[in-house]
Design brief:
The structure is a single chain. The protein is of the alpha/beta class. It is built from 13 helices and 24 strands. The chain has helices at about 55-60, 160-170, 185-195, 205-215, 240-250, 285-295, 340-345, 345-360, 360-370, 385-390, 390-395, 405-410, 430-435; strands at about 5, 10-15, 25-30, 50, 70-75, 80, 90-95, 105-110, 115-120, 140-145, 175-180, 200, 220, 230-235, 250-255, 275, 300, 375-380, 415-420, 425-430, 445-450, 460-465, 470, 475-480. A 6-stranded mixed beta sheet has the order 6-7-8-9-10-17, with no helix packed on it. Strand 8 and strand 9 form a beta hairpin. Helix 2 (about 160-170) crosses helix 3 (about 185-195). The chain is globular. It catalyses: a beta-lactam + H2O = a substituted beta-amino acid. It is an enzyme of class 3 (hydrolase). Its EC number is 3.5.2.6. InterPro entries: DRMBL (IPR011084), Metallo-B-lactamas (IPR001279), RibonucZ/Hydroxyglut_hydro (IPR036866). This is 5' exonuclease Apollo.
Length: about 475
């Protein structure tokens, strides 16, 4: 998982393991790639997620996260967010296009902690340095995409890589073209191929839906047999499938990726497979140019696990000292966490906030109801008593269906009750009697088994004296058949 919890703040970016970030309350998502959404599922109900408008569309459509928990923020406009419950402490966040994939953004946080730039995954270009949110600003901390932070990681611009892909396609006019891609990313490359080759791009319905969500032009089709260029999953491009495809018709595969730059290429000896160094991440030289212009006081790497070449030091890509000469000298400025923010970040506050959120949902209400402890006298019939009373209730006709009308019930009162298989029952005086301290003894009349019940759950027939109510034990199944009878 490529994310971060920003120390001494309630902020977490691309980090969804809530048990490992007990002080985080404000969550941000930079983009929808799987390595940045690990742990984020449709069951998310912890806190609000802030992201770009496009990422919100993808998040709710693909991962089915509740729309009311996701806030889509505009690009290049500072937005104020509370850092506590009382609104005493705030911060501003500005989203900047990360030039990585549809909806991907950088975050600029400004508050009591200083000014932080979180790049997420990004591809450097000169345009980034011209944005007013970045240009001329001093950043205390830079969270940097260090995917290709190594001198060996040199590759061409995306424009040059696109030209290479188009040339390969044009040099194979009689071949079917298979392009291996991951689920999100390189949409612009596909569009450029379609325009240059004047050909529809075939793809599966799921990817086509993604294209529609991100607003790509209509140059794609789900009828893959109607065009000679189609998109498949990156993992589908292997020697076995290449042989299978070529047994039917001449086929070549193109993998636009820099994954193997600086290391070994597993497709080097696989015929009809072309690996083109096309990347949505910054090269090492581009990272240096970016850091040189930003000149942050401190750099923290975002990516901690890499695919390394055999002769590469495991720590080489996370060692930010390589940029030391390009950074602003650190003044060792320290900040204190405001008391209201400390309170907001406290673990007990987290529980209170989550309880209040859950109380507004049916699920939350159900859980609260289950946690209530019953009060009163507990009657625990012995096994012998249970066997003796097993048939008395139904034999005497003392049970009626809940759907009967009030007139059919006579003076009885129908209630939903919960019973254990051991036939526990609980009684206590009604509220008014409890407050006055009065109380009398209640009798447990008998137990019967409903043989027509699908779950074979025990039902209890009670005689309650006036002024008593039935208390429901926790975690029991609801039984719909019972009747109160006067004697």
């Amino acid at each position: 998982m490529n994310g971060a919890v920003i120390p001494n703040t309630p902020i977490a970016v691309d980090f969804w393991r809530v048990r490992r970030c007990p002080h985080s309350r404000i969550f941000f998502l930079s983009h929808m790639h799987a390595d940045h959404t690990a742990g984020l599922t449709s069951s998310w109900n912890s806190y609000t997620i802030y992201c770009s408008v496009i990422t919100k569309k993808l998040l709710t459509a693909k991962l089915h996260v509740k729309s009311e928990l996701v806030v889509g923020l505009p690009l290049y406009e500072p937005v104020t967010i509370n850092l506590d419950e009382v609104g005493r402490e705030t911060m501003t966040v500005t989203l900047v296009d990360a030039n990585h994939c549809p909806g991907s953004v950088m975050f600029i946080f400004e508050g009591y902690f200083g000014r932080i730039l979180y790049t997420g995954d990004f591809r450097f270009c000169d345009r980034l340095l011209k944005y007013s949110a970045i240009k001329g600003k001093q950043f205390d901390t830079l969270y940097l995409d260090n995917t290709y932070c190594h001198p060996k990681c040199f590759f061409p611009t995306r424009s040059n890589a696109t030209t290479t892909v188009v040339e390969i396609i044009r040099n194979h006019p009689q071949h079917t073209i298979v392009i291996g891609l991951h689920s999100l990313g390189k949409e612009t490359l596909l569009y450029d191929i379609a325009v240059a080759c004047k050909c529809w791009i075939g793809m599966d319905p799921s990817r086509s839906e993604t294209m529609e969500l991100v607003g790509m032009p209509q140059v794609f089709t789900c009828d893959v047999d109607s065009t000679r260029i189609r998109v498949v999953s990156f993992q589908e491009v292997n020697k076995r499938n290449i042989d299978l495809w070529n047994s039917k018709e001449p086929t070549i595969a193109i993998l636009p990726t820099c994954l193997y730059v600086g290391g070994s290429n597993p497709y080097e000896n696989v015929p009809n497979v072309f690996v083109v160094p096309y990347s949505d991440h910054s090269s090492f030289e581009e990272l240096k140019a970016f850091v040189s212009d930003i000149r942050p006081r401190k750099i923290i790497p975002i990516v901690h696990k890499h695919r390394l070449s055999a002769d590469e030091n495991p720590n080489s890509r996370v060692n930010m000292n390589i940029f030391q000469s390009l950074m602003e000298p650190s003044s060792s400025q320290k900040f204190s966490v405001p008391p209201s923010v400390e309170c907001f970040m406290a673990p007990e506050m987290k529980q209170d906030v989550k309880k209040r959120m859950k109380a507004t949902t049916k699920l939350g209400i159900r859980k609260v109801a289950k946690s209530r402890k019953a009060c009163g006298v507990v009657f625990l019939p012995s096994q012998e008593e249970c066997e003796e009373q097993k048939f008395c209730g139904w034999a005497n006709g003392d049970f009626e269906d809940k759907e009967n009308t009030d007139s059919e019930r006579g003076d009885g009162v129908a209630k939903e009750i919960d019973i254990q298989e051991r036939h526990d029952s609980m009684f206590s005086p009604m509220k008014n009697d409890r407050e006055s301290g009065s109380g009398v003894v209640a009798d447990n009349k008998g137990v019967a088994i409903n043989d027509n019940s699908r779950d074979k759950v025990g039902s209890v027939y009670f005689i309650l004296k006036e002024g008593f109510e039935l208390m429901v034990p926790e975690r029991k199944r609801v039984i719909e058949l019972t009747k109160m009878k006067k004697y």
